[in-house]
Specification:
Elements (H helix, E strand, L loop, with lengths): L21 H8 L8 H19 L15 H15 L5 E2 L4 E2 L8 H9 L8 E9 L6 E11 H5 L6 E13 L4 E4 L15 E7 L6 E2 L5 E13 L7 H12 L3 H10 L6 E7 H11 L5 E10 L7 H4 L2 E3 L2 H5 L10 E3 L2 H5 L1 H5 L3 E7 L7 E6 L7 E3 L3 H12 L5 E7 L5 E7 L6 H4 L9 H10 L7 E4 L2 E4 L2 E4 L7 E4 H7 L2 H7 L7 H8 L23 H8 L9 H13 L8 E3 L14 H17 L13 E10 L6 E10 L2 E7 L5 H19 L3
Parallel strand pairs: 8-16
Antiparallel strand pairs: 1-2, 3-4, 4-5, 5-6, 7-14, 8-9, 9-10, 9-11, 12-13, 14-15, 16-23, 17-18, 17-26, 19-22, 20-21, 24-25, 25-26
Helix pairs in contact: 6-7, 13-22, 15-18, 15-21, 16-21, 17-19, 20-21
Length: 686
């Protein structure tokens, strides 16, 4: 090629507004074999010389046209483009907001959205590959862009799901200063878009994994349901339809009427989701109501609505906040764990969505699949729950008027067999509640007193009141039992006897004894659970109150079930709820407990049943029952309000029953414990 042929023609690529001589324009329009064709090229040489002279004179605005580019400028422009796209600002370069693309659409963001679909919302990783100068058209080049969209981060797909491809950016060297700029075109985003196609992203959510019981059988699994709704255009009287639904289902008619009136005519206004069996029982009532519409599907559900609901939680449509914080795992309309274990282990149970990227429309009428990653199924979570024991606990609390909780623990392992709350949807007080333990805490105090040398046969008076530094303590209903052995004080739950013994204890004796019984230490349950707080005493009055479960001591029903399990086992037991995936064990080793002292406490708990405050448990079938009742004062009323407690064990099953605003442990909580143990005896614990 001659040196003339390497000189850029002044008639080469131009920005709008650039000028060329009429002669040059005419020459460029002549056929290749027309005489005189060489004349413009020669003029280009002259023109190039003139530019060089002008540049030497200080006016080198077009000096670049006489130079061959080494490709560095084109690569720099391509790199700027790649960086801008990676940072979500395809239309600008750097931070100055200067136009980056040549001839972009008027609304670049809208065009990206139209062409890329959901991918437009995710910034890809873009790197520059080979940059090639166009020898036939000096001032033109192309750059390979290596584009990859991380669909795990953007769409919630399985780890390693990367949609990667190579697109081509055309570049032109234009303007007075010879700046390289990328040229806009749909194919810049993806080669498949050159023919007018657009990209579509489809998500496939896998079936949610089951929650399992201790034996590996499902306690939460996909269950047929019917979603009841109202279509506004189908009811002439929304208020009447809402009133009928309120009568049948107990929903809020006024709120439903407002939602129906504000919705689009053909919208599905959700009312309630019913188990298929519950819907079938109401079908003849619901079907004839004007405007009612129904959708059938499946939902992850437990055997009954109440079954360990506070622990297991629920699954529902993902909220806007859940979608926003899910890293693409969820989109509007998806089901997600909304509470309890379903929320805590949501990512494990839900798995990962599958994603398909397709090119649609354009020259190819059929859809072309460009990338696919299959959904990744969720993994089950295995719990310690035993269905028969859980059902017995739920049934025991079902008829109770007061909010209550019941926890059952396997003495041999510490595994939690049942967690029941009443009402079922009133929060998980069984695991996370914080309440004064009342006289059930005398189990802990007795262990501390035994370590100090107490003989349970020694006489410890039980007067009606006992005063410590001006603070007077009394017994339930002002009882007094006179000069009796300590074992009788324990069986009859004498507060004043325990208060009189409190000076024997060091300020930290109760926290230490509680720790030996699994209270106030770190647990590894795998779910949110309160292990209790037993502060060291700050005064003689503080220690006296703490000795019978008042003052600043707080526990959960689970914590007191753990106390009973530790006594029954003869060593510290810590609770376990989630078995797989197994949580990390607590960092501290178990606190040592004296088996002989625990056996003594167990004997005292048996006397509570045979001749103390829990004789209602004496007739329960099966092995002997050991128990301790408690009545815990709380609040500032005079007389103060009380909670009712009963803890204990029978054979290998430990339990705690808690009733808010209960009159006393013996009269309210102990009968529930008896009912629970009878139900377990009828069905078994395995």
């Amino acid at each position: 090629m001659s040196s003339d042929a390497r000189t850029p023609s002044p008639d080469g690529p131009r920005e709008p507004g650039s000028t060329a001589s009429p002669e040059a324009a005419a020459a460029s329009a002549r056929p290749a074999d027309q005489p005189g064709r060489r004349r413009p090229r020669r003029r280009a040489v002259v023109a190039g010389s003139a530019v060089a002279v002008a540049a030497a004179a200080g006016g080198g605005a077009l000096w670049w046209r006489a130079q061959r580019d080494d490709g560095s400028g084109a690569r720099a422009a391509a790199t700027a483009l790649a960086d801008a796209w990676s940072q979500g600002r395809l239309g600008t370069a750097g931070g100055g907001g200067e136009p980056h693309l040549r001839q972009p659409p008027a609304d670049l963001a809208a065009e990206q959205q139209r062409l890329l679909g959901a991918l437009a919302g995710w910034a890809p990783s873009v790197a520059v590959g080979a940059v090639t100068l166009d020898e036939a058209a000096d001032g033109a080049a192309s750059a390979a862009l290596e584009v990859s969209f991380d669909l795990a981060a953007g769409a919630g797909a399985p780890a390693g799901a990367v949609f990667a491809y190579t697109s081509t950016a055309r570049l032109l060297r234009t303007g007075d200063d010879g700046t390289w700029r990328p040229v806009w075109g749909p194919a810049l985003l993806h080669p498949a878009l050159a023919g007018g196609a657009t990209l579509a992203v489809e998500r496939e959510q896998p079936a949610r994994a089951d929650v399992l019981g201790r034996d590996g059988s499902p306690v939460v699994t996909a269950t047929p349901v019917v979603q009841v709704g109202v279509q506004p255009s189908r009811t002439p009287d929304p208020a009447a339809t809402a009133a009928a639904l309120e009568a049948a289902l107990g929903i809020d008619a006024a709120a439903l009427t407002t939602r129906v009136q504000q919705a689009d005519p053909d919208a599905f206004v959700d009312v309630i989701t019913l188990r298929r069996s519950d819907y079938d029982a109401q079908r003849d009532v619901l079907q004839p109501l004007p405007g009612t519409v129904f959708r059938e599907s499946t939902r992850p559900l437990a055997p009954t609505r109440a079954f360990a609901r506070g622990l297991l939680g629920s699954v529902g449509q993902a909220t806007a906040e859940t979608v926003e914080g899910s890293g693409g795992r969820y989109a509007a309309g998806d089901l997600a764990g909304s509470s309890g274990l379903q929320a805590a282990y949501d990512e494990r149970l839900a798995g990962r969505v599958g994603v398909v990227v397709s090119a649609r429309g354009g020259a190819e009428a059929a859809s072309t699949e460009l990338f696919r990653v299959d959904p990744q199924p969720g993994e089950p979570v295995r719990t310690s729950l035993v269905a028969t024991v859980q059902q017995a606990a739920d049934d025991t609390l079902a008829a109770g008027a007061s909010p209550a909780a019941l926890v059952a623990v396997d003495v041999a392992t510490g595994e939690v067999l049942a967690v029941a709350n009443s009402p079922a949807d009133g929060g998980d007080r069984a695991l996370t509640g914080r309440f004064p333990p009342g006289s059930t805490f005398k189990v802990v105090t007795t262990l501390a007193l035994l370590a100090d040398g107490l003989d349970v046969a020694e006489t410890v008076p039980c007067p009606p009141t006992y005063t410590v530094e001006g603070r007077s303590f009394s017994n339930f209903e002002d009882e007094a039992f006179g000069d009796v052995p300590f074992r009788t004080d324990f069986a009859l739950s004498c507060n004043t006897a325990f208060a009189s013994l409190s000076p024997r204890l060091a300020d930290d004796a109760l926290p230490a004894a509680a720790a030996r019984l699994g209270v106030g230490v770190e647990w590894a349950t795998g779910v949110d659970a309160y292990a209790g707080s037993v502060p060291a005493a700050e005064s003689a009055v503080d220690l006296a109150a703490a000795s019978f479960g008042q003052g600043r001591t707080l526990v959960s029903p689970l914590a007191m079930a753990v106390v009973a399990a530790s006594v029954a086992a003869g060593q510290q037991r810590l609770p376990a709820i989630v078995l797989d995936p197994a949580p990390a064990p607590p960092p501290a080793p178990p606190a040592a407990a004296d088996p002989a002292a625990l056996a003594t406490v167990g004997g005292l708990m048996r006397e509570v049943v045979t001749g103390g405050t829990a004789t209602v448990l004496a007739g329960v079938p099966g092995e002997p029952v050991h128990a301790k009742t408690g009545t815990a004062e709380h609040g500032t009323d005079v007389p103060p309000a009380t909670h009712a407690w009963t803890i204990g064990y029978q054979g290998g099953l430990a339990f705690a029953v808690f009733v808010t605003e209960g009159a006393s442990g013996g009269s309210v909580a102990a009968p529930l414990a008896a009912d629970f143990l009878r139900r377990v005896a009828a069905t078994g614990t395995s």
